[in-house]
Amino acid sequence: MYHTAAIVFRDGATRFIKVEPNELLMDAAQRHGVNLPVDCREGVCATCRCLREAGEVEVEYIDEEALTEEEVQAGHVLACQTRLKSSASFYFDIDSNVCSVATEIFAGTVSAVEQVSEGAAILEVTLDDAGAAMHYLPGQYARIQVPGTEEWRAYSFATGKARDGKVRFLIRLLPSGVMSDYLRDRAAVGDAIALEAPFGAFYMRQIERPLLMVAGGTGLSAFLGMLDELVEQGGCDQPIRLCYGVNQEQDLSELGRLAAFADTLSDFAFEPIVMNASEAWQGKRGVVCELFDRDFLAQPFDAYLCGPPPMIEASRHWLEKREVGDYRLFFEKFVSS
Ligand code: FES
After folding, report:
1. What pLDDT band is residue 164 in, cutting at 50, 70 and 90?
2. pLDDT value at position 203?
3. How far is the CA of 335 from the centre of ligand 1 (A)?
4. Which of 42, 67, 99, 153 most suits a substitution to test ligand 1, by most atoms within 8 Å of the C-beta?
């Protein structure tokens, strides 16, 4: 016997789906054409987080990096880990249009690959059908099939839109990893490569207040996409501050592109912050959130955070504990693999 799940979105849209016994909420939603945000499917990234508003559920696993104890107590669950014990209702803090866009697989060709720092590379893909409409929102991500393998990995777009059929990604180079090994050892212009998009609930909302952007490592990619889109739209009338944290200065990437955004956008500034800086480093050093500009945050603002879970948690915690203006928080945690 199945149960019914009501899926309620922030814009008020509601979808009702049938969930089979033992079926995961995420799978049931997808079976009904509701593409909930999903990434790891393992209870780690919290991309699929939602609030259980009614009903009984059984939750398989929640990583401590994904939800805090308080969030679990408050009823937050992960759709990729949740089965229904009764009919139930879930609230997703995203707009329904993000989920109703079905993902699509696109064939493409590697048109550029460039190591931009010791720890990161830019991958540019040109879609084979340049006229194909690849719809995504700046901040969202694609899943990319690593050429020559059956493995797919998720990366945020570093471009606001596919222009001339081209999209770019800033990708972390791990000492060992299926995509990192490909980029370092085998990637060549002309390689066939497949992408699936769009994914994710981390995207730029209508800008009505000053923006705080906080990037950890290659979490910068999502912000490159957002800023690119703002430039394309002709600018932004709100101030934007980007705090860009990395472990060591050799990891800093795309500083030239950030400087170009600062030249183009009327009130955009960025600050590279290095956690384990060498003696020679002249810039700011330490933990990103400890260096937030308190004067800037005294006014109402929107905060966008994208990076590794510890950085997101530290920043959220900092904002919760300090006297700052009224703020809305959007974040994406990612685990490099
Ligand atoms: Fe559910 Fe990552 S997709 S926690």
Report:
1. confident
2. 80
3. 11
4. 42
